[in-house]
Amino acid sequence: MRAALLLLAGLWLIPLGDPSVAAEPVARPNIVLIFIDDMGYGDIGPFGNTKLKTPQLDKLAAEGMKFTSFYATPVCSMSRACILTGCYNARVSIPGVLFPGSQIGLHSDEVTLAEVVKQKGYSTICIGKWHLGHREPFLPTKQGFDSYFGIPYSNDMSIDTQHARFAEDCVFRDGMTEKKARAEAIKHTVPLMRGVEVVEYPADQATLTQRYTEEATKFIREHKADPFFIYLPHTMVHIPLAASEKFRGKSDGGLLGDAIEELDWSVGEIMRTLKASQLDEKTLVIFTSDNGAAVGSSAPWRGKKASQFEGGVREPCIMRWPGRIPAGTTCNQIAGTIDLLPTFAKLVGVDPAKERILDGRDITPLMFDPKAGPVRDTHLYFTANQSLAAIRQGDWKLFLAAPANNGKAKKNKASQGAKNEKAATGAALYNLAADPSEAKDVAAEHPEVVAKLQAEAARREAEIQEHRRPAGQLSGTK
Ligand SMILES: [Ca+2]
Prior knowledge:
By secondary structure, the protein is an alpha/beta fold. The protein has twelve helices and 18 strands.
């Protein structure tokens, strides 16, 4: 009936699987996006871990959809650029990792996830590790988030002694003073910020997961009536690992296990709060990670953090939205963090591609139908230096050359996964269906596939270089 009325009005309704889903053009769910740092594919129960207890994530997966070909990138900042802009990091000129001395950040002209949903009146908050520029013009509150609470970059870094802006009531811990903070940058000692000001230094990392969770649940309770978007890029499980007293020493997986089990608890608290607020059915919850395991497990894939093998970039991902995403299902199609922006845009009813090229695609067809065909059959693997290292098309994956040096990220002890790449030299072709662990280079047997993928890679990289957009610069710097 509704379709007929729309037809009479001159509109055409494209059926997408279940017609009751397709007939609802704009759903405007609340969105909670949980983005773990350095957690690998094999680190949690739903994706095969048998050692750690992750009952809340097991439940999330049982009530939602697991994605088994969900791509992020090898390291932190570039991964955040992808998830927030819907583009490969090379298109928005964000390198692998930014540092406390970095003068750049995500360009203010980029339209972030928060700015997309803001157009439809969403309340937005960023809680956790930002890592897209710590200088004031680049912070979350300048990129569409109403508020921000978290650390500006990785927890193994140090304070920007020159530019940190301390709140009047900043809590200085461990005998620290502003004078001492300005005098020396100490590794593994980072500021905790609210808005654009430092509110605690050094941040008490053992309680961050707990405090981020409290911030998120408070936000949910306070925004029951509005649509909202919570972006929760956790500080854990990047090294130095930490867990609160309640979880420390409790898991069978050392401090990493404790931290992961605390993150699982955090997911449970958020779900409990959504239910108590009667927002369960109105909320899309997404759980994923920014790159492969640093100290944990990327099993069954080859490689870990910083690698372009699947273990560096293919992440556990769970999406739950009762009544919309079929429960207990799995999607094996190619998808990834770059697809979230066009997907959110579709869900809230915004056209994000009007003035800019996006690399991601709307993956709602995958979310709503586990039998759906591919939305995009190609994925590009960019390096920290923003060059193209590999391309996947369908089941074929071609390394264009020896996997590139992942730049500064390699210096990080947590990035030792890069070592695992050494075996691959020159162009190498893998069939991910027949050989998911990328053990056997079959380039010599399939020269026509190599040639086709090389041509496609060259075409795609040339397009991105041609339409590349700059990173944000501080005024007065180049
Ligand atoms: Ca990371």
